[in-house]
Structure formats: structure tokens, C-alpha cells
Amino acid sequence: MLTVDFDRLGLQPGDRVLDMGAGAGRHSFEMYRRGADVIAFDMDADELENVRDLFAAMREAGEVPLGAEADVKQGDALALPFADGEFDRIVAAEVLEHIWEDVAAIKELVRVLRPGGTLAVSVPRWLPEVINWRLSRAYHDATGGHIRIYTDLELIDKVTKAGRPNDGTPGDAMIFEGKDYAHGLHSPYWWIKCAVGVDNDDHPLAKAYHKLLVWEIMKQPTALMLAGKVLDPVIGKSMVLYFRKPEAAQGA
């Protein structure tokens, strides 16, 4: 279940790519299949071990182009262990809403992105997330849970300003290139879960809707694909923002 549009990101075979907050690796695996040199970065060592194993399985099964590489790295989003400008593309999917010092994390993403490189950031969309928070405190009030709800303007402002020097001069401010919405079929599922209890997986309505989502993901039936395209702009659970780092400082 992918959130980021890699064609819009500009991903090319051979690109050096960072998947920051990779989790179970869904975006890392797809970028690897497309021939990128991928680093799956996360703070969860157990998740990364599983990702590493699947990278190896993909190589053995011949699912990746010759020359593509992939590895994992554990660490802190506030102090990325990479050189300035090391990556051509960066994905940060559904991670910033978990980080208290989100501006510091964004600045690190901008630092390790090369001039001319692109960044995709996805977070829960404002309206579906507000409904979840109103329906259930347990949805977000948990260790490692969501700690904020972004508007598009807030997140665009934080990212575009992240490359500027501390003196407020323009510097190499990030360029906002557009936004998408994704997973419109998933918002109602979480509204149901929040209404009946986020841990109540046995509720009949929650179980039935979960089966529908599994069918969507595994079989991709045309009817649900079309329904998703209609619902994504209206109630898509995720908002995806795309940015580019200027080739040179503005005004240089």
C-alpha cells in the first residue's frame, strides 16, 4: 500500500534514496524494485531486521534490477548519520506526526538532500485526522502515537523554510511542487475503529471493513480502485507534499 507517487518524485534507477522512518519497508521495497540505491532508516531495530531480510529475499528472487542496492540503518531522525547532500530523493511517509521536534527533523532531511533533489513528505490529512481524534483519545494518546495534526499550509511552511539560514535570509529555501491525497477508502475504516474502540478488532463492522481493505490491497478490483480515486481528493487519509531543493541558493 504505497502513499508516495514515485513518478512524481522523479525516482530513477541508480538514484541514492533515503526512506526516513521506513517502518516495515513498504516504500523502500518499491524503490528497490525500481532500481534505486535505497537506505531504509528507522529507530526500530526489529522492523529494520525484517526489512533487511526481505531485501535479501528480493535479491535472491531476482525481483530487482542488476546493480540496485539496498540496506538498513538505525538511528535518530534528529541527527541523521549521513553527509550533506548525500541523497537524490528522500521519502518521509507518515513519520513527522510522531516527532516532537519536527522542524529539527525536517532540517536534517533538507541537509542530506542534494541540490536539485526531491523530497516527498506524507502525513495524516487534517479533516480525517480531526475526526479520529474527536472520536477516540486512545487513537493518538499512546506511546509513539500521533502528537499533532498538520494543515497543508503549516507543513509547507515548515519544509520550505527548513533550508534557510538562521539569519532569515532566503538561502536555499525548499521549493513546494504540489500535493496529492491518498487512501480515501481507509478513512472510514479508522472512523469505525475509533467509534467502536481502536483495539476492538472483533467488532462486526470493523471486521467487515477490514476484509474490504484487504481485498482492495491484495486484488485491486477495478470498482474499489475507481472508488479510491473518487474518494482520495475528498477524504483521503494521507496528504502527500512534494518539494525540490534548489540547484543553488536563491539570489546567488
Descriptive report:
Helix 7 runs antiparallel to helix 8 (204-219). A seven-stranded mixed sheet has the order 3-2-1-4-5-7-6, with helices on both faces. Strand 4, helix 4 (102-112) and strand 5 form a beta-alpha-beta unit. The protein is α/β, with parallel strands linked by helices. The model has no long low-confidence stretch (mean pLDDT 94). The chain contains nine helices and seven strands; from the N terminus they run H-E-H-E-H-E-E-H-E-H-H-E-H-H-H-E.
Write the layout of secondary structure elements.
Layout (H helix, E strand, L loop, with lengths): L5 H4 L6 E5 L5 H8 L3 E6 L2 H16 L9 E5 L12 E7 L8 H11 E12 L1 H10 L16 H10 L13 E8 L3 H11 L7 H16 L2 H14 L2 E7 L8
Parallel strand pairs: 1-2, 1-4, 2-3, 4-5
Antiparallel strand pairs: 5-7, 6-7
